[in-house]
Write a structure and sequence with these properties.
The chain is mainly α. The protein has helices at residues 8-14, 20-24, 31-45, 80-91, 105-116, 121-128, 132-140, 148-155, 173-183, 189-195, 215-228, 238-248, 251-267; strands at 52-56, 63-67, 73-77, 101-103, 145-147, 169-171, 212-214. A hairpin with a 5-residue loop joins β2 and β3. The longest helix has 17 residues, at 251-267.
């Protein structure tokens, strides 16, 4: 279940005046609460505020690139494109803030891909260091925007580097194929079931009846297949045997054998 939003009446009791929480959750609009929210928004947007701005001079029709803090003028021109280009060069790229709110759609899509691959919701939350109630609201679409730092932690989860737990489920197609090859050797099903860890008095294989299996079961079947069904030994071809013999010879032995072949050819 997702965490319910705090009731304004309860928030008004829980949070003091002069805090952003009292302004947003308690819906208080007193001067101290508005000042706290204003200070928060100023600090949040401080990194993206551009100090070099473009001004148009009405008397001359030209343009000026001016620093709003110091009043310094970097360029005077009648070409607006040159002024815009100079302003952007001086401001530089805006740094990305970890607290910036961005769309949660990429994170939601990535979570869906991880879950289709067998990773559970709680495992994703543990790797991303996100509360489960928040993750549920992201998956359901209740949270439309999330902090950039939260989205980055979700998108950083990769199946290649994050081993899913044994309880996660995957498709059973490959596992059924391996079991069929094991049973084709003539081993009884009960013996195979015991080898896979079944502890019932009359063990039975249930994999054939299911569309998915746990990763732990798939690993045990793969290990048992490797023990009972080793890969067939492929005999080398005559060309491969000759190549191996030639590579094992040193230079002197190769020269002697080559001279013998030349002598036999000349004698024939």
């Amino acid at each position: 279940m997702s965490k319910p939003i705090l009731d304004p009446a309860i928030a008004a009791i829980k949070y003091d005046h002069g805090s952003r929480a009292r302004y947003t959750l308690g819906r208080c609009r007193c001067a101290p609460c508005r000042a706290a929210t204003c200070a928060y928004e100023k600090s949040r947007h401080a990194g993206e505020r551009k100090i070099w701005r473009l001004w148009r001079v009405r008397m001359t029709g030209g343009f000026v690139v001016k620093n709003v803090k110091t009043g310094a003028i970097a360029l005077r021109t009648f070409d607006r494109d040159d002024a815009v280009r100079r302003r952007d060069e001086l401001n530089g790229p805006i740094p990305k803030r970890s607290s910036e709110l961005i769309s949660a759609r990429p994170a939601r899509t990535h979570i869906a891909a991880l879950r289709r691959a067998g990773m559970g919701r709680r495992v994703i939350g543990r790797h991303a260091r996100i509360n489960d109630s928040v993750l549920v609201r992201i998956i359901s679409g209740e949270i439309k925007k999330t902090r950039r730092s939260t989205a980055d932690r979700i998108l950083a989860i990769r199946l290649e580097t994050t081993a899913p737990p044994g309880g996660a489920r995957v498709r059973a197609d490959k596992t059924r194929e391996l079991l069929a090859e094991i049973l084709a050797t003539g081993i009884p099903k009960a013996r195979v079931a015991r080898a896979l860890g079944a502890k019932a008095r009359f063990p039975a294989l249930q994999v054939a009846l299911r569309a998915t299996v746990t990763i732990a079961t798939a690993r045990r079947v793969r290990a048992l297949h490797g023990q009972l069904c080793p890969p067939p030994v492929v005999e080398p071809t005559p060309q491969e045997r000759l190549k191996a013999r030639l590579s094992a010879m040193d230079a002197d032995e190769f020269s002697v054998r080559l001279s013998r072949l030349r002598d036999l050819g000349a004698a024939g």
